[in-house]
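Let us begin with a simple case.
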Amino acid sequence: MNNLITNSFKLHLSNQFLESFTESANTIYYLFVSNHLEYPIDDNTIPVPLDNTKTVRRDITSNMIFGKRINISDATLMIKRSDWTANTVYDKYLDNSDLYKKNYYATANAGSYYYVYKVLDNAGGAPSTVSPISSTDESACNFITTGDGYKWKLMYKISSAQYDKFATPDYIPIIASDTVKASAVDGALDVIDITFPGSGYITNFTGQFRGTDLRDAIPILSGNTRTYRLGVDAATNSSFYTGSAIYLNNGTGSGQVRSIVDYDSLTRVIVVNTAFSTPPDATTSYVISPAVQITGDGISAQAYATISSNATVK
């Protein structure tokens, strides 16, 4: 039978170990120095300690010289060290089974603090040439984009004192940031990977509603809270915009996205799937573009696409 001890379970055990320092019936730990007899001058090989009763119960204990109590301030979780170095290709964060084998984060030294950033996008696998250290605001929930096309998200910072105490050539400490946690937006979509770009998309159609384009000014559709008339340059093909998205990008009601479920090319009237929570008026401009469908376990996610003839897929 094959056995698997997952990384999640290993992390759980590590957290349980840290909790044992501070829980009500806490465990007391000591680091001790043993063996008061020097090794033979012609033998510099230190014996490998064995995990058996003889070694632990008798040899080590009987040769113990002194011990020092380890407090919670002397313990921390650690992760593999990955310093930011120019011209290094960092892996972008992907929630898959290979994540723990990747260098999907980097540490940048700012003198009094070390900052740890997660790689949200690596510019299509290009080398990183610009340090992410330009952003050190833990309360900023958004990622930053550096001049090399990388997208970074600040995760936490380590004081130079903490770094000097715990860091090794291979590992650095994890110092949880309550500020980053409080500023995070649950379910936010910071980066979208295009795995199949498709083809044949129309360019975005933009416009601004006039008073006569609003539902109450359309006699045959008066009272329908889901109908609006587009500008005179709208497509003349029947159902041309059906299935697209309309995004209110300025003016009253801006920021809302709806799906277009019907389009009458003769009257240039669209029908949206649900009424706008804040109805647009004559100050409202809009963008119509291919709809973006988001699937997952979140709620209320909305998006629209921007079409560019000069775009490249990475």
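The second case is a distinct protein. As before, the sequence precedes its structure tokens.
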Amino acid sequence: MSGQMASLTSGISRSIAYCLEMTFLTFLNELSYPRGAVSQLLAREAVRTLIALLRELKRERSDLALHSSVPLNNIPLGDNLWLGSLRADGETLDEWRFLRGLENRAPFHFGLDHEIEGNVDYEFENESAAALGFVHEFDALAISFDSEAWRSPTVKVTRIELQEDGTLELEDVCVRNASLNTHVEPLRTWIRIIALQEPQDGDDLWANRTSRFPRLRFLQKVEAQIRSLKAGSPALFAVNRRLWEIQSALSAWDFTSVSLPTFRTKVTPEREQRRDLFEFKDLN
């Protein structure tokens, strides 16, 4: 287990140098990088297809930002070409400038290793899938270079978590994916809905918690934690997403029944080593 995807909601702020205006997270799928012998002509076409997709997304969300596992220069376009090699190509100068405007210059896996608690990884067909894992954790969008393998609007990945007893727990999850500009159309409703749901910052989330999450009650000591969430941070998106999921589960729950709510994500009891860390007053 590499531990790259561990404790994302608390640890990602250490490794992603995001700009505060960023609100629409996308992650470049490193498994989609062109492989094998690729001519400069085909490499150029792959980049233009990718940029056509990103331009269409930016028309829908001007705050689009792109995270990649390596700096733009080092993105491979086959065995012997890299994106940086196209910089001097006059035919792709505009494309290069556009990508630089979207690029987050800190690799999204930088620092997410043994210093962070937890052991969670994601795999796609037995390959480590860092970008797809981040997409799942933050309910974001994977951006893929176009090929037959990546033309599906959703991709199934395996979430692997190391348990306290040393066993591995595997769960299949689906993430959103796009590789062509035509893939944006079925995503428009989702893109617009999440824009309406996204709080501006932690202060906004706390101030409007009653209207956003009418089924939830917050302990007062949570206020400082929520208010500390910065505008545009991945942590803000992750916390807001989890609260919406709990709100949705409770809204559909018949509280007079003996059954528990049907949560949209996996819910388990606290592990024994963490139970003593939590103490709160029952509001009832």
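Residues 70 and 107 are 5 Å apart (CA to CA). The chain has two domains: 8-192, 200-267.
Keep these points in mind for the review questions at the end of the chapter.
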